[in-house]
């Protein structure tokens, strides 16, 4: 089973216009006045009737175009009737870009070099011998898509399947994205093409599959723009394996009064999860903010709160949660970090002075025992001073 032939570029606004030479940003281009083209040292033949695009394999593909080369000779004999002297007159070659004459890059033999193609190099190129137009080229500069890696998931058992891919680099011009979807048990003639949206370097699409469908699905993402096209590797999945809930919501971390080592965490189900029918399990992780390499993970069943008993006193903690269906699927993303400081209370500093008298040790012992019930007071006792 193969999607290869089905991932060809579709006729759309992402297709190059006829006669357009679509080249990658940074390419080294050499144009000949008679229509020859070389890109990165590779001759592409005569551009008179071809359009070139770069595919994800690195090769240039051709399509019919309408780049013009006139029927004109580089040198010709000119007869001066007065002197009856025949002289070979060589016309000077000049190049223009969008009507403005180019001076840099023009070489002998009518060659134009454009090294390290930039956005400013896009446009209409024309080559003249004297005042006579010899050829025209239209160059479009773009960034072809990198090879995508598609990822599919469901937020809930009955929700749509969502597939997406985010490019590591900008894709210019805006590409066309679509997903090819089939079942492993079907012949590959039964392929569904799912249109995708694209924005900010991300392709995404959604489609409905009946709940309880146990078939193995096969997906492949195709991405194409005027600079090239690319296809993802196959992605095989069963619906119950790709259930990925949204993260928990309303995460709150509270201190416990009088308990320096305790933090109480509570949370809620994500709104996209119907927990009347299906249950989520949770995982909690926490650590002191300054201890970057230390984390504690706790697996929690269907409870909606958890108490941490081993927090460090007076330390700020980072707390996060994630969720997963109790039987199937994969863990959600982690929630945003919630910060909390373990209980400190309000310390009272009291200075107690006791005169050095007989039996002072016993007095201090009894006095300290009576004051010790007040856990939040720090005592400083000075013996031999007047009160």
UniProtKB/TrEMBL annotation:
InterPro entries from the UniProt entry: FN3_dom, FN3_sf, Hematopoietin_rcpt_L_F3_CS, Ig-like_dom_sf, Ig-like_fold, TypeI_recpt_CBD
Cellular component GO terms held in the UniProt record: external side of plasma membrane
Entries under PROSITE patterns matching the protein: FN3, HEMATOPO_REC_L_F3
Taxonomic superkingdom: Eukaryota
GO terms, molecular function: cytokine receptor activity
Keywords per UniProt: Disulfide bond, Glycoprotein, Immunoglobulin domain, Membrane, Receptor, Signal, Transmembrane, Transmembrane helix
Chain ranges of the Fibronectin type-III domain: 247-347
Location in or out of the cell: Membrane
One Pfam family in the UniProt entry: fn3
Principal location listed in the UniProt entry: membrane
Entry protein name: Interleukin 6 receptor
Topological type in the membrane: Single-pass type I membrane protein
A single BP term in Gene Ontology: immunoglobulin mediated immune response
């Amino acid at each position: 089973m193969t999607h290869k032939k089905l991932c060809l570029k579709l006729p759309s606004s992402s297709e190059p216009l006829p006669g357009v030479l679509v080249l990658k940003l940074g390419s080294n281009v050499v144009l000949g006045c008679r229509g020859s083209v070389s890109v990165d040292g590779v001759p592409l033949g005569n551009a008179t009737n071809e359009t070139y695009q770069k595919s994800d394999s690195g090769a240039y593909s051709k399509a019919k175009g309408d780049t013009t080369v006139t029927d004109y000779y580089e040198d010709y004999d000119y007869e001066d009737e007065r002197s009856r002297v025949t002289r070979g007159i060589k016309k000077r070659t000049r190049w223009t870009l969008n009507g403005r004459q180019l001076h840099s890059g023009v070489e002998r033999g009518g060659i134009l070099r454009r090294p390290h193609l930039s956005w400013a190099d896009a446009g209409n190129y024309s080559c003249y011998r004297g005042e006579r137009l010899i050829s025209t080229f239209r160059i479009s500069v773009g960034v072809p898509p990198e090879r995508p890696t598609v990822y599919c998931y469901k937020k809930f058992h009955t929700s749509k399947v969502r597939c997406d891919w985010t490019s590591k680099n900008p894709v210019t011009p805006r590409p066309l994205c679509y997903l090819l979807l089939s079942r492993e048990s079907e012949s590959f003639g039964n392929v569904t093409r799912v249109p995708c949206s694209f924005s900010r370097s991300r392709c995404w699409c959604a489609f409905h599959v009946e709940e309880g469908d146990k078939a193995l699905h096969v997906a492949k993402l195709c991405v194409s723009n005027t600079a090239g096209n690319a296809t993802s590797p196959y992605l095989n999945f069963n619906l119950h394996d790709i259930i990925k809930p949204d993260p928990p919501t309303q995460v709150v971390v509270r201190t416990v009064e009088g308990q320096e080592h305790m933090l109480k965490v509570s949370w809620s189900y994500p709104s996209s999860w119907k927990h009347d029918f299906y249950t989520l399990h949770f995982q909690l992780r926490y650590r002191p903010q300054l201890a970057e390499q230390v984390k504690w993970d706790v697996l929690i069943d269907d409870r909606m709160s958890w108490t941490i008993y081993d927090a460090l006193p007076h330390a700020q903690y980072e707390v996060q949660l994630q969720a997963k269906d109790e039987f199937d699927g994969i863990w959600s993303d982690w929630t945003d970090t919630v910060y909390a400081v373990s209980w400190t209370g309000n310390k009272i500093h009291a200075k107690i002075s006791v005169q050095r008298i007989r039996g002072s040790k016993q007095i201090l012992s009894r006095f300290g025992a009576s004051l010790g019930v007040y856990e939040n007071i720090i005592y400083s006792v000075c013996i031999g001073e007047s009160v």
